[in-house]
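Subject: complex prediction, re-run

Hi both,

The earlier run crashed halfway through, so I resubmitted it with identical inputs.
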Amino acid sequence: MSSSISRHRVVIVGSGFGGLAAAKALRRAPVDVTVIDRTNHHLFQPLLYQMATGVLAEGDIAPPTRDILRRHAHTRVLLGEVVDVDLEAREVTLETIGRSARVAYDSLIVAAGAGQSYFGHDEFGLHAPGMKTIDDALELRGRIFGAFELAELAREKSERDPWLTIAVVGAGPTGVEVAGQIAELSRRALKRNFRGFDPAQARVVLLDAVDTLLPSFPESLRRRAHRDLERLGIEIELATRVTGVDERGLDVVRPDGSSGRIEARTKVWAAGVEASALGARLGEQSGAAVDRAGRVAVLADCTLPGHPEVFVIGDLMSLNHLPGVAEVAMQSGRYAARSIVRRLRGDNATRAFRYRDLGTMATVARFRAVAWFGPVRVAGPVAWLLWLVVHLAFLTGFKNRVATLASWTVAFLGRGRPERTITEQEVFARTRGQAHQ
Amino acid sequence: MSSSISRHRVVIVGSGFGGLAAAKALRRAPVDVTVIDRTNHHLFQPLLYQMATGVLAEGDIAPPTRDILRRHAHTRVLLGEVVDVDLEAREVTLETIGRSARVAYDSLIVAAGAGQSYFGHDEFGLHAPGMKTIDDALELRGRIFGAFELAELAREKSERDPWLTIAVVGAGPTGVEVAGQIAELSRRALKRNFRGFDPAQARVVLLDAVDTLLPSFPESLRRRAHRDLERLGIEIELATRVTGVDERGLDVVRPDGSSGRIEARTKVWAAGVEASALGARLGEQSGAAVDRAGRVAVLADCTLPGHPEVFVIGDLMSLNHLPGVAEVAMQSGRYAARSIVRRLRGDNATRAFRYRDLGTMATVARFRAVAWFGPVRVAGPVAWLLWLVVHLAFLTGFKNRVATLASWTVAFLGRGRPERTITEQEVFARTRGQAHQ
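This time it finished cleanly. Structure:
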């Protein structure tokens, strides 16, 4: 362990899977680490859909970053949004509620991730919240459970039906998972809760512009997921483009070219991602290419051209067509950390980042999932159990594992949804939407 | 069980302790019940301070009212704010996001409760959130944990200290409990979380205009609670009036008449309550007296003068100087339900409502509480255990009991605070405050 008065300073932008993996890998390195994020938590994004549908609480999937890293004596965590990087001066600028500060680095790991993309139609977001943040999930939770509340107040069927129709745009893993959970909660969790209608009649419509669901999965598993979703009663409309979103529903263009309309008061947007705006700033200054989704083309060692001290990892990185999944973020984060340590030891040989694909899984409903590891394909209850074990293992913190397992027992073996609280925030959001009528 | 085509209609306004107790007591009665509340949940208010300080999640203390009542076949639950009561027409008017509806009753139970009172200074609320709703607790959670985040960003002590000072206004049970929990979290839960300061240095100041804390408790228990709070390091300023609240702190007038100033970025208001505005409407129409706190003077059987079909119960009722506690609300709710059933059986004899005082308790910190049942007074670990058992017993739902016990184990035996997630909602609230600088 070398140590000196002025230690090598590593700044990590982002406390998602990539940033956190890098920080953890640097625990015993002779460096001072600063982790900067605009939230106080590490978000376990793959379970966000369960928070949106009432299975889990915020704390279960969003432990405080500084608590996770509390035993990393040489690591500090700062709350703030990194609004700029100065590659010349080797400084990042962070902002927190109007206060701005600059933090100097010797090595920089940019793991700022990606947000929701509405493909140039940001106005859709007012009516169709995304699935990227704790606030998105809180708002969706309020909208989903609130829609059933308003259906109970409806005087006639024509008023009630749009409240009982939920449209999910995007049929990747997130869209499939959230659609499945909404169908399940309407069939099971809400049983006996209403007097004016049967919540099991709720329509869940899953849409995608592409002509398949789960495009990253092999054909056999796609077919299986398609069948499982249909058995749950979910209507699947593929090769269908969304051309408008408003308070009352969606305008679509169907595969035959005809225009259509889906009356749905509740919309969930799980369709596209757009990398952090920091990508564009890094591209401008370094000359690195930035793709349509805002991702930065990095060298084989995940660094910016001409800036070996700057690593861009995870969802913000464009390299070898790697997908924007947690596993890529974590592996590239650990890789960047190891590269920094090697260089400090005087080893400047470039080793290319190699991604080891550990498999992909998506859960369709309780006891139903699809999973895929190289040649191995699994579906049904076995895949679901696998999904359960893997997600429990990756959750941060023993307490969160116990609490999550308890909530899953209640939700999947029982019929409960422990987290159905609607907060004012969401009522306001809906009222805002209502003003458009 | 008598039953007829047009059953007797009971409308219950409010799903707090009083309203819910009334609804439950009517389960097997030959009546149709409508419960109306502006939230979708029954709030277990006595544990709200634990949500605000990161121990519990929303779902633990706010289960959906309609789920609690799902097996009450003749009970429906409507989401809406009751904005008016028409005693002549026997109808209530409810509003939900711009939609308005009237609901007719044969018997009415008004259990609309009380909100926070700033004693004519509602502008204090912008900087000092109350402790009455789930949203209050979410906002306070964000402000409390957010203050430590901002302390870590401070460049010097003069900037940091106000972020590390938390003022709690009001030294009744809620104020005592929230002050105790904030002190504990700063001493234990945040250990090792910061690099620029020691969170145990945080100052917690508990203020009250009255010259004692816990005024409803016997002298010996007050002294004990006072000593326990001081041992936790809490500064107690009694007989101290708050004359101003702003972004940066509080203006106070101390017992010697001198003006003072407490620099505290985080303020919690637990000082006063004000009954629902429905109280005033009922007073206007019936001629019943309405006291300064907005409570309606009812007859000995909890009904409005001249309106035996209208019961006013819980925090909205003024009767025999009964305190605004859960037990009064529950007992008066059950009493109103029984009165309605008796009358339907043809028994119109008036029986006065008699409150059976089952005791009072307040928890100061982990392993420290005070409790009081008639002549019996208990303090310390025994009172704390009693507090724990009683609160677990009264929580609604088996799952919530298990989850809460798990969270308590983590928080009180361990050092964890499972719920520390700060949401955008709270950041916005703070930014709003910040604009005043």
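The two ends of chain B are 65 Å apart (CA to CA).

- K.
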